[in-house]
Specification:
Order of helices and strands of chain B: HHEEHHHHHHHHHHHHH
Oligomer: heterodimer
Distance between the termini of chain B: 40 Å
Largest sheet of chain A: 6 strands, mixed
Shape of chain B: globular
Number of strands of chain B: 2
Strand content of chain A: 5-15%
Helix content of chain B: over 70%
Low-confidence stretches of chain B: 1-16
Helix content of chain A: 40-55%
Largest interface: A-B, 37 and 31 residues
Radius of gyration of chain B: 25 Å
Number of strands of chain A: 13
Radius of gyration of chain A: 24 Å
Largest sheet of chain B: 2 strands, antiparallel
């Protein structure tokens, strides 16, 4: 009996010790970007990692290994399609994370409902300098003058190019860069030349309604004409404006002229480009580092280059968004946990350069000006993207608008729907979402 | 009064016309409640309460998180009536049900006819056909995603054998929905098959022997003995399948995500997107209630059609 009692007391003590260790400084960290524990689980130097998943994993490992406040970040990765559903639901289940990734476009959903609280002062106290953030990044995380999140990047759509195939098609400038189209007519004529010379598709783009690449191109084209998809006050959909119609006609012409394979999903389009089966790939900043690495390691794509999305209409404009970090509101969080979470954010801010290596644009002016950033490969090709980066006026449920526009556009090439009908449908669904917003 | 007495009283009264129905009912109530209680409690907590709570929520603009709730009367219902996306999703769901339910019923019956009996091969094959039912929808969709992939899928060599270019089935307007139906058949065939096997075993073998003496053909035996013998099971399978297939979600969400061009977006997917993507739990609940009414209507219709002949029994 006494033996058993002793043992029980010991176990209880051990449990107490371990939980007190755990509860004081464990941070629950949820994000997308994928899980790559197998490849980068032991890497503590971000310089040894590449790609979004690799670099954020290495950064997390480094923080866990080097922080002096005894904090430990426990990562939970969520598939990006289910991410926001899960995050929102966590407020109901009570299993609220301490640090979570958030697109700038989604932030308003949480700030407006008091589900995220300002962290500006605490960030400053932890050594973060918001004045170092570029204007758009700061704007992305600020609401009513308060900072609600830590901006980590600005990401946008780029034109990824297979230079080898471009050379084969004779679409290369004298300085060795790719010759890019500046209008729809040029796009079509270059595309025809390309197909004749190489026998391959000129373009690749995710074309199912499952991802939103077509929406990103569509929005960029509307903004390039000086139009927008919703009114300034966020109340009215203007997708069926003349600019919207013109953008839809542009996209339909791409498919009608057989410039790209309409049957490819995201992975299929990516594989086509990496296998050297397509000349150009319309995709984001998030893959620059990854494609460059794969090109070096003997993918079908050998001569990789990447440029700003061409300006097809009046002025440069390109779809952009921003990854930010939030501390979701949770009344049961201890001050120690909050402090550890802030410390982790400050650490991430400090390592904005490492994140920029993925291909994203950094948010800190000091990083942009730094020699190491200037020396990163491929940057010259898309130096104009930072200024062209554009977003919708902030509205709630922007994600729904993205997905619905992509889904409403796709019948243009999957069936014979006219651009007029497609933009009219997209306008209806967008208006439905806006009407419900308060 | 002891329980034995109660039983005797009940038994004797069951035979004769009960003289004192009042007393009998009173004494039966306690054991009845004891037996029914646990079920009734669970039923009330997990079905009755959520149903009424759902009706209550549907009269609100009710957000997923953040606590915003506002009474808006019948606005959600009005909105639903004019919601193009809802009708499109309903149309898609009907298309799926019309393909899946008859195919599932017919195929499972054929399988049951082929696999009833006691020899070794059939005994082995029955659990084999049933086994796909134990997988989660995630596994099923992963497997079928691999089968149907145009690059490396199992179907690719089949296309090539016929000298055809492999098509992206899940990205095809024509074939995406049938592909979901096939995956669903493969996944769900086990239970209706088991039900049919059980029902076939209930048919007295004398009937078949008598028919054989009359030189009845196999088809005649099938239509005159087998089908009437399993009619009730057939009805059960149909109603179960209607209720189940109207709620198709996982396969569509994971295999096509509603694409291409919304052709596989189903009602439950629309509920999910409205509630969890767009935060509108109030409206999502309204759609869910509409789905409930649709399923109730078709189940009742089935039961009514199936029960019409019973008055002659």
């Amino acid at each position: 009996m006494t033996n058993l009692g002793k043992r029980m007391a010991l176990t209880a003590a051990a449990l107490l010790v371990s939980t007190s260790f755990a509860s004081a400084t464990d941070i629950k960290f949820v994000r997308f970007f994928g899980d790559c524990q197998a490849e980068f689980g032991d890497v503590t130097d971000p310089a040894d990692a590449y790609g979004e998943c690799g670099i954020i994993t290495a950064l997390t490992n480094q923080f866990n290994a080097e922080n002096t406040i005894g904090a430990h970040v426990n990562t939970q990765t969520v598939d990006w399609g289910a991410y926001y559903t899960q995050l929102t639901s966590s407020y109901s289940t009570g299993d609220i994370p301490d640090v979570a990734v958030m697109h700038a476009s989604d932030l308003i959903n949480y700030t407006d409902r008091d589900l995220v609280t300002p962290i500006g002062e605490e960030l400053v106290a932890a050594g973060v300098d918001p004045d170092d953030w570029v204007e758009q990044a700061r704007k992305n995380v600020t609401s009513d003058g308060e900072i609600y999140a830590l901006p980590f990047d600005i990401h946008a759509v780029l034109m990824h190019v297979n230079l080898g195939l471009m050379e084969e098609a004779g679409l290369v400038n004298e300085d060795g860069t790719a010759k890019l189209p500046t209008s729809l007519d040029e796009l079509i004529s270059m595309g025809k030349t390309f197909k004749e010379k190489t026998g391959k598709y000129y373009l690749a783009m995710e074309s199912q309604s499952t991802d939103v690449s077509s929406m990103r191109l569509f929005m960029s084209l509307v903004w390039q004409q000086g139009g927008d998809l919703i009114s300034e006050d966020g109340k009215t959909a203007t997708v069926d404006s003349p600019e919207g119609l013109k953008a839809a006609e542009f996209i339909k012409a791409m498919f009608d002229n057989d410039l790209l394979d309409p049957g490819l999903d995201y992975n299929g389009a990516e594989q086509a480009f990496l296998n050297g089966d397509a000349g150009m790939f319309i995709n984001g900043t998030w893959v620059v580092n990854s494609y460059a690495t794969q090109a070096e390691n003997g993918a079908g794509l050998t001569d990789y280059a990447v440029y700003d999305l061409p300006t097809f209409f009046d002025k440069p404009a390109v779809f952009s968004n921003s990854h930010t970090w939030i501390i979701p509101k949770d009344d049961t969080r201890t001050p120690e946990e909050r402090e550890a979470a802030i410390a982790f954010l400050a650490f991430l801010n400090e390592n904005d350069y490492q994140w920029a290596r993925t291909g994203h644009l950094p948010v800190r002016q000091s990083v942009i000006d730094s020699e190491e950033f200037q020396a990163l490969p491929y940057r010259a090709g898309y130096a104009g993207t930072a200024d062209a980066a554009h977003r919708l006026p902030p509205v709630k449920n922007e994600r729904g608008i993205y997905l619905d526009i992509a889904a409403e556009l796709s019948p243009m090439w999957q069936t014979d729907m006219s651009p007029e009908e497609a933009v009219s449908n997209a306008n209806d669904t967008t208006q439905r979402i806006l009407r419900r917003n308060r | 009064m002891t329980t034995i007495d109660t039983g005797q009283v009940a038994a004797s009264q069951a035979v004769a016309v009960p003289k004192t129905p009042h007393r009998r009912r009173k004494s039966d109530i306690v054991p009845a409640l004891i037996f029914l209680g646990p079920f009734m409690a669970l039923y009330a907590v997990f079905l009755i309460f959520p149903l009424f709570k759902g009706i209550y929520i549907s009269f609100h603009d009710w957000e997923l998180a953040g606590g915003y709730r506002e009474w808006i009367g019948f606005f959600n219902y009005e909105d639903l009536w004019y919601d193009r996306e809802f009708w499109r999703a309903t149309g898609n769901t009907f298309r799926f049900v019309i393909m899946a339910v008859p195919a599932m019923t017919a195929l499972s019956l054929v399988l049951a006819l082929a696999l009833r009996g006691q020899d070794r091969i059939r005994t082995i094959l029955r659990p084999v056909f049933f086994s796909s039912s134990v997988f989660s929808v995630t596994v099923v969709t992963l497997v079928w995603g691999m089968v149907l992939s145009p690059d490396r899928g199992l179907v690719t060599p089949v296309f090539e054998a016929f000298g055809l270019e492999p098509i992206n089935i899940l990205g095809s307007l024509t074939w995406a929905m049938p592909a979901l139906v096939i995956a669903t058949l493969w996944w769900g065939i086990g239970l209706p098959m088991a039900l049919f096997i059980a029902a076939l075993g209930q048919i007295p073998s004398e009937l078949y022997e008598a028919a054989e003496l009359d030189y009845a053909s196999r088809w005649r035996k099938f239509t005159a003995i087998t089908i009437p013998g399993i009619r009730r099971t057939m009805l059960l399978v149909l109603v179960l399948q209607i209720v189940l297939q109207f709620q198709i979600f996982g396969q569509a969400q994971l295999m096509t995500n509603g694409g291409p061009a919304h052709t596989t977006e189903t009602i439950v997917m629309y509920i999910y997107n409205t509630g969890f993507r767009d935060w509108q739990i109030g409206y999502a609940t309204t759609i869910a209630l509409a789905l409930f009414v649709i399923m109730l209507f078709f189940s009742m219709l089935q039961l009514w059609i199936g029960g019409r002949g019973d008055t002659n029994d």
